[in-house]
């Protein structure tokens, strides 16, 4: 435990400050650790990136690194790759889990989205078109419809008639 704290302190001190840099530039760090707990290294990297961190219970083990003047995001990618891990970022929260777990969750979400599209009620929009022929826009609109969606043109009023599932509202 004492060794882990010393490693964490050394890693934290190795992070270079972002003085006189553009805000978009990522911080560069140097790491030299031997058999450091992967949780401690991930916590340090999240701290450097000013992110909140959630680590899955399945993430375990140690990591040995010798990195000089690399972007903290590159160091994070290397640590994740070395342990077969992946990450998911939502705002300021970084979630780390095994690649298998993240892939299974992505597949489940895709199936859920598809099921919602199949059962969602259809809605119809009348979209008047100015400065173009609605029939010329037809292929472009068809390209963004769901599998259940359809579009037609009322040439008399130059209006697109779109029937599709409503897009989910974003939080």
TrEMBL record:
One Pfam family per UniProt: Secretin_N
The keyword Membrane is assigned to this record: yes
Xref: Gene3D superfamilies: 3.30.1370.120, 3.30.1370.130
Span of domain Secretin/TonB short N-terminal: 51-99
Keywords of the record: Cell outer membrane, Membrane, Signal, Transport
Domain of life from the UniProt record: Bacteria
SMART domains: STN
Record bears the keyword Signal: yes
Secretion signal span: 1-20
The name this protein goes by in its record: Secretin and TonB N-terminal domain-containing protein
Organism: Archangium lansingense
Highest classification ranks of the organism: Bacteria, Pseudomonadati, Myxococcota, Myxococcia, Myxococcales
